[in-house]
Amino acid sequence: MKKIFGILILVSISLFARELTLEQAIQLAVDNSKDIKIAEISKDISNLRLSKAFKTALPTVMYTGTYTASEYYREISSSKGVRVNDQKSGYYQSIKITQPLFRGGAIIGGIKGAKSYQKIADLQYMLTKVDIRIATIENYAEIIKNEDNLYGLKGALNELKAVQKTQRNQVSLNMLIEADVLKTESSILEINSQIIEAQTNIAVQMELLRIKTGIPKNEVIKIKEFSVPKYLSKTIDFESDMRQARNDSIIALIAKHSVEMQDAAKKIAASDLLPKVNLFASYGTGSERTRYRKTIDEASWQGGIEVSWNVFDFGSAHDDYKIAKLELEKEKMNAAKTDDSIDTTVTSAYLELSRLEKLRDSKEKAVIAAKQNFEIDRQRYEEGLISTTDYLRAEEIRRNAIIEHNQTVVKYMCAYERYRSLII
Asked: Would the pLDDT of 76 be above 60?
């Protein structure tokens, strides 16, 4: 009755479990990632910086109001030369419109720099999504691998327990010595250890997947298996992918726009060495006073051109320009390093994929051979033609061959995803 009840519980859990595919897991991980939210904020900041850069070329309106108070009545000469006492306080106000005419390239440089910053923020957002995708695939695949291992280990455990039971009967009939039973028990303990390891890995990886996807702990998840295609290298045009990676990959474009952004910073630094010219118009009470307390009757329009030039500052502005120039050279060197690293990284990723492809074929053949050899050795063991040690060695080889094959398939899939991420 308890067994039936337990089966009913397992069936009900499987019916109400949430089935999760790999693509669903990736999408949930992207939607719930804090790194994505940080990247989105960076994108918003870059958009605001670009908007601000454009606005520096537009007119500005400045209102100025000043209230002044004095301890004593103030004597001010009138237009007739008579000194009169005015009030203890006064108010000055004006409104001024300023239009930049010349900034030495600072406005254009600011806009170019902000555009480059915006492009970098967009690329960093895409790169974050790629990183999350790869991490989720690795996480998901580890769960599948350990579940497959667990299934195989439990099957092997049941087989050895059946053998152990037969051996104990044989020992009681003096057909087998106790040492053979102990060898089998040792193998059973080893398998139990591997089962615990697989179960622990599943629990850890499942918790990581919950954190990534935001799925509540009280919700049962059923991971849906997927197949990994064979010979993925045949779908790759390596030369075309290398050109793509050098010129249009996310990493290459980030390096390119970083150089452009620093070049804009150099232009802005150079503009500090040049004069700045503004066109202005203002309306308000002037600075030349005929009375301490101003009135609207004295308000007037003024306009003209303002020129400002930092003629001498002990070379501070020139040092800023030198720094910006050196920073540009450094960024160009970093871009050259990025080009070199792209060649190395893409080539290495492709070779690793090719290696794992061949290794996968090798492990598949090893599994087939190990299973066939085990079936032969099991039959020979039952007929008393080989020892317990030989039988257990055959079982261990079969068990490990399956585990190594599962591990290789996961590595192969992840290697392909990492290769593809380098050329996006």
From this structure: no
pTM above the 0.85 mark? no
Residue 28 CA to residue 212 CA, distance in Å, equals 8
Domain ranges of the chain: 17-56+103-274+316-422, 59-102+275-308
Tokens of 273: 């060495």
Determine the 3-state secondary structure of 56 from DSSP.
coil
The domain made up of 59-102+275-308 has a fold known as Outer membrane efflux proteins (OEP) (2.20.200)
| Burial classification of residue 227, based on how many CB atoms lie within 10 Å of its CB (0-12 exposed, 13-18 middle, 19 or more buried) | exposed
What is the spatial distance between Cα 366 and Cα 315, in angstroms, rounded to a whole number?
A: 74
Question: CATH assignment of 17-56+103-274+316-422, given 3.40.50.1260, 1.20.1600.10, 1.10.10.10, 1.10.1740.10?
Answer: 1.20.1600.10
Give the span between the Cα atoms of 126 and 289, in whole angstroms.
62
**What H or E segment, with its residue span, contains residue 224?**
none
CA separation for the pair 206, 221 (Å, rounded): 9
pLDDT digits (tens, 9 = 90+) for 248-262: 999 999 999 999 999
State the Cα torsion 22-23-28-30 to the nearest 10°: 110
